[in-house]
């Protein structure tokens, strides 16, 4: 029986080093190659590379090394792996790797993966990862987690599932939904097997976070279960502070805090009141950018400001404040959102505040503005939870039972709106 094109088990042959391939010239396949030496440029070696940032391979502990760790668990851009595809795909990322700096981790060689996997990982880098951060410069999903997925099959399955789910909403009649389900199931089974050993703490935690992203992309109904799994897992591994001792841990805990915060109004009014009451604008800013500098300070401030206003509006409603007080806050939010919104640079992360404030809007013009903003966010990110948010807001606005909208969120929202 013949194999379909693209499903062969043999690794794809690399014609030359990255530079020679880009210049479309013959390469002697040495490392470094003679063409790069003669031209006086740095030879990146053989293999397909993700363009995470400029010059990352020339800095950090891995600079100038072909194999950074003695057990060959992590291969840099100048390394050719002798492993077969099946062996390479099941290798687990060692705990010792977590001691490396972010610069050490920002490289990835995926030649040993099949064509579909390479495409979907690149799709994750270009379409899914940017939607999860306000400023797509230092993106932990691309710079930290994606390279680690090269040698971690469980995490890689979750990323592929998220990408395929995203594609399935762009192309409803395509094969991508079945691909997403296949890899989602594989990621869940991988977590179940891994959980019995207690190893690979960061790999498993990263996989859960990525599966939560897929919940947003596909409007899945398991986000509450996943969030409970995440918190239980973190507690079993010593808590936030212990996990935050590594760069990967800091990034993952940052994302988990953000997801937990936004999910709170969908889970319980009591827990939401408790968590939202004790967070400041500065706290929110840190959730979006742990290192705020002059180039992104105003953007993060605008994002954090709108998110914080939405939180205050939610708290005013659940604590039964006077209608005129809440209306005044809504108008203030709308006025600010006219200046910084879904069309602004960095505004693509404002799904949650527009949804929460939209739930409070009774004015038709305000409702139309909110829907327009969410439609812009859908076009920008392609996350299906935005379309779900719009449909749910319409149910709130047509509420015939006179049930409060915070109560409706807890009882009736099935998808993760963030």
UniProtKB/TrEMBL annotation:
Residues 73-92 are annotated as: Disordered. It comes from the Eukaryota. GO terms for molecular function: DNA-binding transcription factor activity, RNA polymerase II-specific; transcription cis-regulatory region binding; zinc ion binding. Pfam families: Fungal_trans_2 (PF11951), Zn_clus (PF00172). Its main location: nucleus. Keywords: DNA-binding, Nucleus, Transcription, Transcription regulation. The keyword Nucleus applies. GO terms for biological process: positive regulation of transcription by RNA polymerase II. Residues 16-43 form the Zn(2)-C6 fungal-type domain. GO terms for cellular component: nucleus. InterPro entries: Fun_TF (IPR021858), Zn2-C6_fun-type_DNA-bd_sf (IPR036864), Zn2Cys6_DnaBD (IPR001138). It is found in: Nucleus. PANTHER family: TRANSCRIPTIONAL ACTIVATOR PROTEIN UGA3 (PTHR37534), ZN(2)-C6 FUNGAL-TYPE DOMAIN-CONTAINING PROTEIN (PTHR37534:SF17). This is Zn(2)-C6 fungal-type domain-containing protein. It comes from Penicillium salamii.
């Amino acid at each position: 029986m013949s194999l379909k094109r693209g499903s062969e088990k043999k690794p794809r042959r690399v014609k030359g080093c990255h530079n020679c391939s880009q210049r479309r010239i013959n390469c002697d396949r040495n490392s470094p190659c003679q063409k790069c030496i003669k031209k006086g440029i740095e030879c990146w070696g053989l293999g397909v590379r993700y363009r995470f940032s400029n010059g990352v391979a020339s800095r950090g502990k891995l600079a100038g090394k072909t194999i950074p760790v003695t057990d060959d668990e992590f291969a840099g851009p100048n390394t050719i792996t002798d492993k077969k595809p099946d062996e390479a795909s099941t290798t687990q990322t060692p705990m010792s790797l977590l001691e490396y700096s972010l610069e050490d981790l920002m490289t990835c060689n995926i030649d040993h993966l099949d064509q579909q996997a390479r495409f979907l990982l690149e799709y994750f880098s270009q379409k899914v990862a940017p939607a999860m951060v306000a400023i797509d410069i230092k993106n932990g999903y691309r710079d930290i987690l994606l390279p680690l997925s090269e040698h971690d099959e469980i995490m890689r399955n979750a990323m592929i599932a998220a990408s395929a789910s995203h594609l399935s909403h762009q192309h409803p009649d395509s094969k991508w939904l079945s691909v997403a389900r296949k890899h989602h199931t594989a990621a869940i089974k991988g977590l179940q097997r891994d959980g019995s050993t207690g190893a690979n703490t960061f790999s498993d935690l990263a996989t859960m976070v990525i599966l939560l992203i897929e919940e947003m992309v596909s409007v899945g109904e398991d986000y509450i279960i996943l969030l409970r799994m995440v918190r239980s897992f973190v507690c079993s591994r010593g808590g936030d502070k212990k996990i935050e001792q590594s760069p990967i841990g800091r990034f993952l805990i940052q994302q988990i805090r953000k997801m937990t915060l936004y999910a709170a109004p969908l889970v319980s009014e009591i827990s939401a009141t408790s968590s939202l009451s004790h967070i400041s604008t500065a706290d929110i800013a840190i959730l979006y950018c742990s290192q705020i500098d002059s180039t992104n300070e105003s953007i993060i401030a605008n994002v954090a400001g709108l998110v914080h206003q939405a939180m205050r509006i939610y708290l005013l409603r659940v604590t039964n404040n006077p209608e005129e007080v809440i209306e005044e806050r809504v108008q203030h939010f709308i006025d600010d959102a006219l200046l910084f919104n879904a069309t602004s640079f960095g505004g693509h992360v404002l799904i949650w505040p527009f949804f929460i404030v939209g739930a409070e809007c009774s004015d038709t013009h305000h409702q139309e503005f909110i829907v327009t903003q969410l439609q812009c966010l859908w076009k920008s990110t392609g996350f299906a939870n935005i379309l779900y948010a719009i449909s749910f807001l319409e149910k709130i606005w047509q509420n015939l039972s006179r049930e409060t909208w915070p109560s409706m969120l807890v009882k009736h929202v099935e998808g993760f709106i963030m």
